[in-house]
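Weekly modeling sync, notes
Attendees: S.R. (lead), two postdocs, one rotation student

Agenda item 3: backlog of single-chain predictions. S.R. asked that every request posted to the team notebook include the full sequence so nobody has to chase files. The rotation student volunteered to paste the first one in as an example of the format we agreed on. Action items at the bottom.

Example entry:
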Amino acid sequence: MKNLSRTDSSKKTKITSPENEKNVDFNWGVKIPMRDGVHLNATIYKPKTAKRTPVIFTLTPYIADSYHPRAAYFAQHGYTFALVDCRGRGNSEGNFDPFVQEANDGHDLVEWLAKQPWCDGQVTMWGGSYAGFNQWMTLKKFPKHLKTIVPAASCHAGVDFPFFKNIFTSYEMQWTTFISGVTGNAALFGDSAFWIEKFQEMYQNHKPYSSLDKIVGNETTAFQTWIKHPAQDAYWDQMALTKKQYDKINIPILTITGHYDADQPGAMEYYRRHMGSESKTKDKHYLVIGPWDHPGTRTPNAEIGGLKFDKSCLVDLNQLHKEWYDWTMKKGKKPSFLKKRVAYYVMGEEKWKYASNLESIAPKVRKLYLNSNGSANDAFHSGTLDEKPPKNSQADTFTYDPLDKRPGKLEREEIDEYYTDQTADLNLFGNGLVYHSAAFPKATEITGWVKLVVWMSLNVPDTDFSVSLSEVLPNGKVIKLSWDALRARYRESLLEEKLIVPGEINPYTFEGFTFFSRRIGKGSRLRIIINCPNTIYLEKNYNSGGVVADETDKDAQTAQITLHHDAEHPSYLEIPITK
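Predicted structure, as returned to the notebook:
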């Protein structure tokens, strides 16, 4: 399981020089009133020589001091920066209710900051992950003085957090413990051995996912509220923009995400909904997609999870932000990096490319059809991904026993090189199917979203599916490219459940793969693995068809899954091919 950490690596950002430090004025403990009388605490950094400037602010649950280097940088470059603790966190008053409170607070912060004597009436925001979500929620209320936003790695409540495809992760308790109370809990959050032990306790003893807060020892969080809303219902809708609100957007936006950003699904959801709206300024929405993980969307790193990239990926994102702010609020030049509205990094080719929109990048779609001789149960006896659909093909079968604890034994320690590691690929324990394409006769760029359509029948009323896509190099090494998941009961709609009729053959469409761009090398093959997740890092589905969060070994049913790939049931992978 890849590292799902959604925290920032801002500590790597350095103040430019001791000389510039002297040019920053500092105000500690500034109390900003909200509409309900609660006061949020802000630390203000101001350029010493400027009287009135645009103001940038970050609204964070991670304690304002975490972003001191960022604030100092922008103050050194002509902007006032306000670091604001979310209500109930740090030195702010009130109670912290994740995701619920930020829209109103963000609006009130904009309007208060705009009226200060050191502000020229223009306010913007900086931040990623939860602070990216905050930017969208602030925009949702359309404060008059908000001039632009630059959301990075923005989580989207009900889309990629606290669940993805209606499947919760164990990480939810790790994150909510990080932001519990009023102080920072970074040391506890970063203790991977502690969290693995707690996740193993749930997994090895077949305890229900709903008991994870008790297992961890922290019952003060929103965890129990979240699991009562396991699908995208009205509870999550209140934390998103409506169609009318997207239509109303009238400011320029710069979205930043990465191929391996854990919140890329959320960041892209905001982007796609805006692009599908009637907003008159959507042509001023720019998108940058780098070869970065979640923290890398703020501080890029040329090496992540066993992958290494060219130094050209190390975009100075502080500078890009500054140039964007200059362009949108100081009549400066458009950032030179933004040659077109979409900038994306092609891994393998190690090159930045540009497009006017996402749709124009890959005009061709290639279909690869799943096929086998009835045996596709491991990487060494796999099925194939063929150019032509099979006519008469024997179906493949695999078994998922939720009581099988062997996979958990492989997760006793954290894996550092998670994007090249094959431990899970080579240890399916009969739970999964593997399909390989033929070797690519020449280097081929794949950019965009892949889609997998498979026809399957089950003997149980419900289960979960996980699908991974990798490049297998000629030397046998693997590079993970993208991933998707699906809960069987939500195969037709993520909004409404429909349990499986045992034995019935149904199509399952996996179209939530993350966006990636990679030049597949000559001689490389693609690998698709589909299985039922059995891991300490995800809510376990025991296949009973009941409330998954409450299921235990007493509810367990062994799933027999048959994947069909014949003329009547063509199962296939779609890949976007560039010119």
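Discussion: group reviewed the output briefly. Residues 364-577 form a domain with the Jelly Rolls fold (CATH 2.60.120.260).
Action items: rotation student to repeat for the remaining queue; S.R. to check formatting next week.
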